[in-house]
Amino acid sequence: MTLVSVVIPSFNDSVMLAGCLRALAAQSRQPDEVVVVDNGSTDDTAAVARAAGARVVAEPRRGIFLATSAGFDAATGDVIARLDADSVPPADWLGAVVAAFEEEPALSALSGPGDFYGSTPLVHWLAENLYIGGYVWFVGGLLGHPPLFGSNLALRADTWRRLRGVVHRDLREIHDDLDLSIHLEPDMGVRFDPTLRVGVSARPFATLAGFARRIQWAFSTLGLNWRERSLLDRRAARRAWEREQAQPRPREA
Fold it and tell me: Taking burial as the number of CB atoms within 10 A of a residue's CB, which of 67, 102, 194, 241 is the most buried?
């Protein structure tokens, strides 16, 4: 049976973390472990996590990719699922994640969208259709494959082991999901499933400054990676690999 770990980075977010952990406890397919990464919190994040039966990993260096990487490194499952502290997965979420990897041996990474809560219907619609929808369309076009959304993703543990030394895990002002997406190798199958949904807080859109910071980090992540290797070159490498795989194989004598 596939073992699955759920990793949740958290910084001073114990109230929403408690809701996320309650949603995980209600899963029809229970996680084999839950790893909460305490990213230098000064609230009761660690106590809330332990009370829910999660394993707490401390990463005092602030930064989402620093925290996520620490959790991925500590996870022991065959599949590592990733949520944010404000993610609220439906009861069938983890079962769908595990089933996807068991049914698709070539699948290396899986992601899905968020259903935003905590603001107005207009903000929710804009966040789901323009922010997430635009991200999937724009970055997917650049890379030639769907990107990952950090509040709702999963990858095989061996995929992380291949990527952990090349991603920009020690940088703070960077989007971990975008950086991971960029570094997926041509032979790594990736799928964005629009039916694999989780609830996600609309807090990032509460202020113009908060939203602008997210956009700035996105362009910083793209620019950093593009300077190292053109994203169009990465897309061409994936297309070449796909063409090679599509070639008929000679029959054995």
Answer: 67
